[in-house]
Amino acid sequence: MAISFEVLHKDIAARIGRLRVGERTVRTPALLPVVNPHLPLITPREMQEMGVEAIITNAYIFSKSADYRERALQEGLHSVLDFDGVIMTDSGSFQLMVYGEVEISNLQTIGFQKDIGSDIIVPLDIPTTPDADQERAEQELAVTLGRIREGHTFLGPDANLAGPVQGGVYPALREYAARTVQDIGFSFCPVGAVVPLMETYRYSDLVRVVMAAKRGLSPSTCVHLFGAGHPAMLALGAAMGCDIFDSAAYALFAKDGRYLTTHGSLKVEELSELPCPCSVCRSHTAEELKRSPERERLLALHNLYVTLAEIARIRQAITDGTLWELLDIRCRTHPRLLDGYREFLRHAVDLERVDGVSKRRFFYQSAESCGRTEVLRYQNMIGRFSVGERVLVTMTGKVLEGYDSVLLYKPPFGPYPVGLSETFPIGQSEVPEWDADMMQAGCRGIRRLADANPESRLSVLAPRRWVELVRAELADIEVLDADTV
C-alpha cells in the first residue's frame, strides 16, 4: 500500500492536495480527529457522516487493550471502528512523551500496526521535549532516525510508513532530520513533539520548528503537524505548508466544559448565547446546553463541527488566494499567536518562492501586511523598470516638467509605471488611508529603484503630511513638497 500526494492549488505555502493511501483518498488540508475506542464521545461512523475522511487512533492503546487487541487483529481496524476512510495509527510515542517509557519495541509496534490494517503506520520515534538541551536532542534524533530506517527496511520501500521529523526546538536539527527522512524516501512526514509548544503558547518557536522542517522536505511531501487541532491556529499551520492536522481537542475541551471558537475557547458556564450555526447550537440554548445530561457529547460535537468548518474555510481561502487575509484575522485572537504570525513573516523570502504570482486581491489589514510575499516580490521586480536620467516618483499624481520618466506610487509596494496600474498587485490592492507603516514599506520600494539605477537622479513628490517621513526614509534622495511646487 503506497502513499502518494498531489498538489492541486497553492497559496502562500499552503496547498490543497489529494493524499492517496492505497485505494483511499483524503482532501487536504484535512483534520484527523483522534479516536479513543474506550471513550467514544463521537463514533467514527458519526465523524464520517460529518465529512471526516480520515481519523487517527493509538496503536499502543489497542495493543494493550483487553477489549480491542484481539478484535483488531482478527477483524481489522476499519471493521472494529466502523470507519471506511483512512485510519492512521500512532505508535505509542505520545505515551513515551507523557510517561517516559512504553512496553513495546519499534518493530513490535510497526508489526502490530501492519497486522491490524493501519493505513498510515508510524514508527516509535522519540518526541524530544522543548526543555531538552541540544546534546540530548541530537541523541534522541539519532535514535529516531535509526528506528525510521529500521521500519523502512522491515516494511519495504513501498510501505505505508510515515517518516516523523524530530529535533526539539533546534531549527538546524529539524532541517537535518527532514532532509534525512526525505533522502530515505518518505512521501508522508509528520512534524512531531510540537504539542508542548502549543500548550504553552510558544507559537514563534512552533513557526521556527515547522519552517526549518519544511526547508528540508520536498514540496511534494505531505506534511502532518502532530497534535495541532485548535481552530484558531489552523490557518497558520496551513500557511506554513502543513497539510494534515490531528487533535483530540474537540473531546478534551468538551470534557473540561470548553466551547471552541475560531478566536479561542470559552467556558460554557459563561455563555449566554451560542454564537455558532452548527446543529448543536441551533437546537439548544446556552442554558439548555449547560444543563443537558449529554453536555460533554454535545460540546464535543460542536467543537468538531467548528474545527471542520475552519478546515473548509482554509481550503476555500487557498482556492481564492485570500489565505493571507484569513491568517491576519486568526492570528489576532491571542498575543502569542500574533508573535507567531510576525515570526512567520520573517520567512517571507522563503515563502515568496512558493507563493502564487497573481491573486484575486491584496487587502491591506495591518502593519503586518507590509511584510507579505506580494510586497516582497513586487519590490524585487522594481529593479527591472526602465527609467531615464531624471526620474520623478509622484505620490499625488501631480506631474512636473523636466523629467525623463514619471512613476506613480502606491504603498506599501512603492513606485510603478502607469502601464502596471491594472496589473496585480497594484491594480488589485485594497489600501485604506495611508499610514506610517505602509509609507515606510513603500519608501523601501523607492530605495530599490534608486539602488538599481545609480546613474539616474530621483526626485519624490510627496504630500505635505508625509514629506518629513519620506525624507527620513530617503535621506539622499530629493523630496519635494507637493503643496509648494
From TrEMBL:
Chain residues that bind substrate: 125, 193
EC number: 2.4.2.48
An annotated GO cellular component: cytoplasm
Active site positions, chain numbering: 90 (nucleophile)
Annotated ranges, domain tRNA-guanine(15) transglycosylase-like: 13-335
GO biological process: tRNA wobble guanine modification
Pathway recorded for this protein: tRNA modification; archaeosine-tRNA biosynthesis
Catalysed reactions, semicolon-separated: guanosine(15) in tRNA + 7-cyano-7-carbaguanine = 7-cyano-7-carbaguanosine(15) in tRNA + guanine
Signal peptide: none
Gene3D superfamilies: Queuine tRNA-ribosyltransferase-like
Co-factor requirement: Zn(2+)
Listed Pfam families: TGT (PF01702)
InterPro entries referenced in this protein's UniProt entry, alphabetically: ArchSynthase1/Queuine_TRR, TGT-like_sf, TgtA, tRNA_ribo_trans-like
Binding residue positions for Zn(2+): 276, 278, 281
Keywords assigned by UniProt, alphabetized: Glycosyltransferase, Metal-binding, Transferase, tRNA processing, Zinc
Function: Exchanges the guanine residue with 7-cyano-7-deazaguanine (preQ0) at position 15 in the dihydrouridine loop (D-loop) of archaeal tRNAs.
Family: Belongs to the archaeosine tRNA-ribosyltransferase family.
PANTHER family: QUEUINE TRNA-RIBOSYLTRANSFERASE
This protein's name: tRNA-guanine(15) transglycosylase
Native organism: Methanofollis fontis
